[in-house]
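Moderator note: this is an archived Q&A kept for reference. The question asked for a predicted structure of one protein chain; the sequence and the answer are reproduced below.
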Amino acid sequence: MTTGRRTGTPTGAGLLPLDSIQEIRARLLRVAESPSADLAEGALLVAAEENPALDLAESLDLLDGIAASAAARLRADADPASARRVLVDEIFERRGFEGATTDYDDPRNSFLDQVLVRRRGIPITLSIVYVATAARIGQRAFGVNAPGHFLLRHGDAVIDAFAGGREVPAEDLARRLRAAGVEDVATTAALLVAHPPTHREILSRVLRNLKAIHLRRKEMERALADVDRLVLLNPDQPHWLRDRAALYQHLGCTHAAIADLEKFCECAPGDPERDVVRRALAQLVRNAPAVH
C-alpha cells in the first residue's frame, strides 16, 4: 500500500490581503470540482481563511502519519471490512480522535487543522479525517449526507465518526431519519447510502455549519465570509445570494445587498419568496445612500 498527499502552504485570512483570499478560494473551488482531489486539502483551505498561521503541508503530514501507521498493519489485499477495523482502531482508539460533546459549537471543531491537533471535532470533520486517511491507504470511504448528523460508509457498513467509528445499524439510521421528519425512510436511507455527497457538497456542509456557528456567536463578518464561499461553490443555488444580501444589509453594505438581491431575482424567477425579496429590494433601493 502507498500513501500520498498534495503539497502546498497557503496561509489564513483575517489579516490576509485580498489577493491571498482570492487564491485560497480559487484552490478551494478546484478541490470542490474534482472528485480525485484530496478532500482534506479542501477542508484545510476552508480553515486557511481563519488561521493566518495554518501550514497546509504540516497538517497533511499529520494525516500521512495516521495513514502510514494504519497501512503498516494491513495486508496489501485487505478487504474493506478489515481496513475499516484497522482505521477505526488507529484513528479513534490509538490516536484518540473523539466527538466534541461538551464544546460542539467551538469553531475549532469545524477547522480541520485544529481537529488534527486537538483530536476533537464534529461529525463532518471527523468523517473527513477518516475519508482522507482511507484514501491514503487505497481504501474508498464515502460520506453519508444524513440530515442533522453526517455519517460514513466504508464497504457495507455505515459508521458514525462522532461516536468513535461505531457501526450504525439500518434500524438506527431509520430512526435518525424519522426523528429528522423524513417520511419515506427506507427510500431516503437507500439513496443516502448509494449516492454519496460530492466534495462540493461536503465542503458546503462544513461552511453551512460554520455559518450557523458564527451567526449564533454574532460574528457577522465571519458569517459573511462563509456565505461568500457558499455562493462561490454553489452558483446554481441562488438562495445563498439572498442570505448574503441579508448579511450585507446587517453590516451596512447596502449597495452590495442590492446587487445580490437583483441577481437573486434574476436567477430564481420561480422562487416562492421572490415577491417578498422584490419588495425588500425596492425598499433598499429607495433608502440607499447616494454613491459619490
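Archived answer notes: Residues 1-14 have pLDDT under 50 and may be disordered.
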